[in-house]
Write a structure and sequence with these properties.
The chain has 238 residues and is α/β, with parallel strands linked by helices. The protein has one domain: Rossmann fold (3-Layer(aba) Sandwich), CATH 3.40.50. The strands form two sheets. The chain has a seven-stranded mixed sheet. β4, α6 and β5 form a beta-alpha-beta unit. α1 runs parallel beside α5. The chain is globular and about 45 Å long. The two termini are 30 Å apart. The C terminus is likely disordered.
Length: 238
């Protein structure tokens, strides 16, 4: 996968600000009706899984235009550090935070896999990021977040998952996005193995959308949500 092209893809998404629904920029759903449905269903599920965030410190890796950081602020988080490697997307996030009068969010430009902070976080949120990283980059990312996650802290991953096997797309034109697209969709077992190797136990995991949902568009992949703990735990769902 050409990671320079991947970054260019996301920088190009920033040029759509003000031209398409705000949430479409980050979640790649172009249909306005499906955008609303996707945001509604995802927000309900993530809110239910996370529960109260009052007083918590959160790290949002791959934060893009900041949509999840904004939700965490509204849900009571004390402080959010939002990290993305695209300065153009980060600029939009800062502008939107100011427009929405949301404080408590610090926006930083950095590759997620090399970001490290001395502070400890109650929750580390990784959304739509891992499919754009190599195996080595994921290893680096997990090594860093293990050191940044509080004992008993949580990591929530929202990312594409290969169904019957690892599924890779390399610079393939997408008519839906009107752009070339690249991604690596790892299997559920791959994700669980990688996180377990770094000391994260699975608490729960499931598909983001129910079978038959119009948001499940591809036979090879599903958007899936995983909740891990920094202490070893047995799976309770999935």
């Amino acid at each position: 996968m050409d990671y320079g092209r991947v970054k260019k893809f996301w920088d190009d998404r920033a040029t759509l600000y003000g031209k398409i629904p705000f949430e479409s920029i980050g979640n790649l759903e172009q249909d306005p009706t499906l955008v609303d449905l996707k945001v509604k269903l995802e927000t309900e599920k993530i809110s239910h899984w996370l529960g109260s965030l009052k007083g918590q410190n959160i790290l949002d890796l791959g934060s893009g235009i900041g949509q999840w950081s904004f939700r965490f602020a509204l849900w009571g988080a004390e402080r959010i550090v939002a990290v993305d490697y695209s300065s153009k997307l980060t600029s939009i996030a800062k502008k939107e935070a100011k427009r929405r009068k949301l404080g408590g969010v610090e926006f930083l430009v950095s590759p997620a896999e090399s970001f490290f902070a001395e502070r400890k976080f109650d929750l580390i949120y990784i959304s739509g990021l891992l499919i754009y990283l190599s195996d080595t980059q994921i290893e680096n990312l997990l090594g860093n977040i293990k050191r940044m996650c509080k004992a008993g802290g949580r990591v929530l991953v929202r990312d594409g998952t290969g169904l019957s096997g690892r599924y890779e797309i390399s610079n393939v034109y997408s008519e839906h996005l009107d752009d070339n697209y690249s991604a690596i969709y790892r299997t559920r077992d791959e994700y669980l193995s990688i996180f377990a190797e770094h000391g994260f136990g699975l608490l729960a995991d499931e598909d983001m959308f129910d079978d038959g949902s119009p948001l499940n568009k591809h036979a090879e992949t599903r958007l899936r949500v995983y909740l891990f703990s920094s202490t070893d735990s047995k799976s309770v769902k999935g």
